[in-house]
């Protein structure tokens, strides 16, 4: 008699069971989404609204105090949304830069051999990290910036002016040769980086004192000065603010809401970055520091050339999370009347009643910023990964 092949039941088949579970999960998710969409559509039908983006072409009819592009209340809602997107991008971009610099400095200071510096950095981290961000925003807004002098009596530091309307600071202006200068600066930067790596390699392999950092900066500075005399002016002009009796003209103005958000976000996020930097440095094997000392490297040089390049591989992944948190935390800006994408979105919802579509737009904006940041940081991370044979 021929042996009959036993057929494994579907619920016991190790190949088909995972596929079946995934298909079932997709069906359940699709069903849940369809139920939510039907509920939204039913609710909108009851109040006489239809899902669509046609309302974005209607006149906004509300002012926006701070905008990177020209905007008037006669512009459509879609331009108001672009203004909110750019305002969110502005506070997030500068916040990431400032938080990164503060975080690295405080993280290194936490490991300083100087007792006073180490304790000051510890107090900074513990105080600002353990205080709610919204409370810090309110403190900077209502206790620091708003009590500043009136604009007529604005406090000044050089050409920087501070009042209860915000800050007026010098800013760059472009001219006919600005594009040429950008190309020149890119070339000088590439040459500087190449020279720095070459001199560093010689210093490590041959044991010669090549001063790679100073030499690279000197080459960049000499190239910059040379092209300055060739072209006849700098890459940008500088506009300095001047008080005309009612407001400052020239330079650029920063609102109280923007300053409150920028300072609070930067300081709050920098405390987490400081701990990430400290952990990354401590994560480098102690033998690396001992080897650097045995080779005669001074502590700052060893940190810059040996310890930190290895620590950056540990630092980058959690650092990405903090950048994403900063971008998402910028949605608290409406608490101090800084009109970012959330604040402008809420105004549009109140005026039009198109809650569903506007919230989807806000979600899409934060998703775009977050995915873009993650993509850049993942690319940056791959550049620092160890290449295995």
TrEMBL record:
Q: Which residues form the ABC transmembrane type-1 domain?
A: 85-377
Kindly list the residue ranges recorded as spanning the membrane: 16-37, 91-111, 123-143, 178-196, 217-236, 248-268, 359-380
Superkingdom of the source? Bacteria
Which GO biological process entries does UniProt record here? amino acid transport
**Membrane topology field:** Multi-pass membrane protein
In terms of Pfam families, this protein maps to: BPD_transp_1 (PF00528)
Q: Name one GO cellular component term.
A: ATP-binding cassette (ABC) transporter complex
InterPro entries annotated for this entry?
Answer: AA_ABC_transptr_permease_3TM, ArtM/GltK/GlnP/TcyL/YhdX-like, MetI-like, MetI-like_sf
Its keywords, alphabetically, are:
Amino-acid transport, Cell membrane, Membrane, Transmembrane, Transmembrane helix, Transport
Q: Where in the cell is it found?
A: Cell membrane
- Main localisation: membrane
Tell me the GO molecular function terms. transmembrane transporter activity
* Family according to the record: Belongs to the binding-protein-dependent transport system permease family. HisMQ subfamily.
Name of the protein described by the UniProt record: ABC transporter permease subunit
Write down the species.
Niallia taxi
């Amino acid at each position: 008699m021929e042996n009959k092949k036993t057929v494994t039941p579907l619920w016991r088949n190790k190949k088909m069971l995972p596929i079946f579970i995934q298909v079932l999960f997709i069906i359940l998710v699709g069903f849940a989404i369809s139920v939510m969409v039907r509920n939204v559509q039913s609710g909108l039908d009851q109040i006489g609204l239809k899902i669509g983006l046609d309302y974005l072409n209607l006149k906004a009819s509300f002012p926006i105090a701070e905008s990177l592009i020209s905007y008037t209340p006669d512009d459509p809602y879609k331009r108001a949304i672009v203004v909110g997107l750019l305002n969110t991008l502005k506070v997030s971009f500068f916040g990431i830069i400032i938080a990164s610099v503060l975080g690295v400095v405080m993280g290194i200071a936490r490991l300083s051999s100087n007792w006073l510096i180490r304790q000051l950095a510890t107090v900074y981290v513990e105080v600002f990290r353990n205080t709610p961000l919204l409370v810090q925003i309110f403190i900077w807004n209502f206790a620091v910036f708003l009590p500043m002098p009136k604009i007529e009596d604005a406090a000044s530091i050089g050409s920087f002016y501070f009042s209860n309307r915000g800050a007026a600071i010098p800013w760059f202006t472009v001219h006919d040769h600005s594009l040429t200068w950008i190309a020149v600066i890119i070339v000088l930067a590439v040459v500087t980086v190449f020279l720095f790596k070459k001199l560093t390699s010689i210093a490590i392999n041959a044991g010669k004192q090549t001063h790679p950092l100073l030499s690279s900066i000197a080459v960049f500075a000499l190239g910059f000065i040379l092209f300055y005399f060739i072209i006849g002016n700098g890459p940008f002009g500088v506009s300095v603010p001047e008080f005309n009796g009612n407001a400052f003209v020239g330079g650029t103005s920063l609102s109280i809401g923007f300053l409150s958000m920028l300072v609070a976000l930067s300081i709050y996020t920098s405390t987490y970055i400081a701990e990430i930097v400290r952990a990354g440095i401590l994560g480098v094997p102690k033998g690396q520091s001992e080897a650097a000392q045995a080779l005669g490297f001074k502590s700052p040089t060893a940190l810059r050339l040996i310890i930190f390049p290895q620590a950056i591989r540990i630092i980058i992944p959690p650092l990405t999370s903090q950048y994403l948190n900063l971008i998402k935390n910028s949605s608290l800006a409406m608490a101090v009347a800084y009109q970012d994408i959330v604040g402008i979105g809420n105004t549009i919802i109140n005026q039009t009643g198109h809650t569903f579509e506007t919230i989807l737009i806000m979600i899409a904006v934060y998703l775009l910023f977050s995915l873009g940041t993650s993509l850049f940081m993942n690319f940056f991370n791959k550049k620092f990964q160890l290449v295995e044979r």
